[in-house]
Design goal:
This protein is about 60% helix and about 0% strand. By secondary structure, it is mainly α. The protein is elongated and about 70 Å long. The relative contact order is 0.07. Residues about 140-165 have low confidence and may be disordered.
Length: about 160
């Protein structure tokens, strides 16, 4: 099958398939006499596996490890269990982060329950205070970053302001 057919069969973009090939997750397919990629059923199965892993928010590195085990069916799967346990812990951490984010957003929403002029909007004022606090971290009364485990600091999404109350 050609790349467009594989893309349609797996609901995957053509560029994503090429990316997985470049990353070594999907083996390079054979080429036709017209230099078109020709994918075998094994490519479809592997791409479906990769897509399932991505739907579970696994990283490319995690998928690489899982694929190595999938390619070595006689290997002991203890490391697979460990990888999944670590991923579950990461997901639990992110759920806690999202709950804290939801709490912060609800508190912010509570600052302006009425329709009024934007200059008097409590949400905009609250956001302005958040920005001011972020610009002047010495004035912030949140716990020191070193109080959190190092893994928590490393996994925190970039580019987001998280307020504490």
């Amino acid at each position: 099958m050609k790349i467009g057919e594989l893309a349609q069969a797996t609901a995957t973009g053509v560029e994503t398939i090429r990316f997985y090939e470049r990353e070594g997750l999907l083996p390079s397919p054979a080429r036709s006499s017209g230099n078109y990629r020709v994918y075998a059923p094994e490519h479809l199965e592997r791409l479906a596996f990769i897509r399932q892993c991505r739907s579970l928010d696994m990283t490319l590195d995690e998928i690489r490890v899982l694929l190595r085990f999938k390619d070595a069916p006689q290997a002991d799967c203890d490391d697979v269990n460990g990888l999944l346990e670590a991923h579950i812990a990461h997901v639990a951490y992110r759920v806690r982060e999202l709950k804290a984010l939801e709490h912060g957003l609800k508190q912010l929403r509570g600052q302006c329950g009425l329709s009024r002029q934007a200059k008097d909007c409590g949400i905009l004022e609250g956001l302005a205070k958040t920005v001011t606090t972020a610009l002047h971290p010495a004035e912030r009364q949140a716990p020191h970053a070193s109080a959190r485990p190092s893994s928590a600091r490393e996994k925190r999404p970039r580019g987001r302001l998280v307020t504490s109350s």
